[in-house]
Amino acid sequence: VQLVESGGGLVQAGGSLKLSCAASGSTFTIDVMGWYRQAPGKRRELVASIHSGDGSTDYADSVKGRFTISRDNAKSTTYLLMNSLKPEDTAVYYCNARRTVISDREYQFDYWGQGTQVAVSS
Prior knowledge:
By secondary structure, the chain is mainly β. It contains no helices and eleven strands.
């Protein structure tokens, strides 16, 4: 699975950005698509995820009500719409695809994009 992100940039506080993640390869094996972010000096954190089966979504508390994750199955593309952006949203945003294989136990395989920078000015 290969992932390519786009859509990052510089925006003023209160503005919006929409990130895209185009997947290619064995996309039918993906169970969950997610967006993570990593700010300088901080650990990478999960921002939002969407399950391939039922389309259910999860969000970090810090972005609930502001960010929306969605997908276009026909285009194998996952989106992250970010509204009401804050300076603390500044980070490199990474697209993630997770595949789970169950044999003797559960194995998880993670695929990552190259990241896209989001900078929010105050």
